[in-house]
Fold this sequence. Notes:
The chain is α+β, with helices and mostly antiparallel strands. The protein has two domains: 159 residues, Fructose-1,6-Bisphosphatase, subunit A, domain 1 (Fructose-1,6-Bisphosphatase, Chain A, domain 1); 138 residues, D-Maltodextrin-Binding Protein, domain 2, CATH 3.40.190. It is built from nine helices and 14 strands. It is globular. The site of calcium ion has 5 residues, from strand 4 and helix 8.
Amino acid sequence: xxxxxxxxxxxxxxxxxxxxxxxxxxxxxxxxxxxxxxxxxxxxxxxxxxxxxxxxxxxxxxxxxxxxxxxxxxxxxxxxxxxxxxxxxxxxxxxxxxxxxxxxxxxxxxxxxxxxxxxxxxxxxxxxxxxxxxxxxxxxxxxxxxxxxxxxxxxxxxxxxxxxxxxxxxxxxxxxxxxxxxxxxxxxxxxxxxxxxxxxxxxxxxxxxxxxxxxxxxxxxxxxxxxxxxxxxxxxxxxxxxxxxxxxxxxxxxxxxxxxxxxxxxxxxxxxxxxxxxxxxxxxxxxxxxxxxxxxxxxxxxxxxxxxxxxxxxxxxxxxxxxx
Length: 324
Ligand code: IPD
Ligand code: CA
């Protein structure tokens, strides 16, 4: 078993592993962009689709990075469990293998579509759950050199700067002041797509100040943790997209919630749980395939409950999706 005193050492190991894997992504990203023939370029990173879905991509680099991270984690932590996006994609285990054991949750490249297109919003994500709760996270964008880390109860950081960046964090009176983020995701069935489009329409018509879509759930969440964007929602995400970043957001004083209200959590893992907003008491189910993230709005997070209610009131019906 591991205890909170072990977390800084475990985080440091995870950071070193992410840094070791980074050249696989950086070299492939840059060597591709120097080539002029796009077909040769695509062949270079061996782009394939998952499960017959033409907009759900995987590359040889995703596989190589996951293998390297797994092998390093296994040699450092032989007693722990491991879940990875690409390994799970080939598995028939629908429970995602999440147990009470310390479990490393890995997304080798969050933002694979960006990687394929040469857009620099890509991240290696390494999270650790203990008793099914995320306790530490590393989100590393090796192209831009952005390293985000967080440890439950010990704060979160972007390249060494404590998050959130604004001190004190600005209040957020209403959606009219909010720069919001969401994604279309890879499920383009008619009912899912129309629910997502309607939700975006309702939130923008509230009105909201602006809409962004960076193509990586983890980077979206880190932008909210920084306070550069105000909220992010998505249906269809998986635990590996959000596990590491969820610790970074919470430790920056933000809220990580599901679309629908959950019961209160029995204990308070974050330094801000116990504060007055009701939503900070809610449990978060990382396997529920939905996420709603709001930035820190100040020490007392005044107005957070009202803002979350106004967003939840505009979310479309949650599409039917299997749990991870
Ligand atoms: C995807 C990205 C994308 C989000 C999808 C994820 P991937 O992960 O995070 O922004 O919309 O839901 O699956 O496929 O790039 O690892
Ligand atoms: Ca991902």
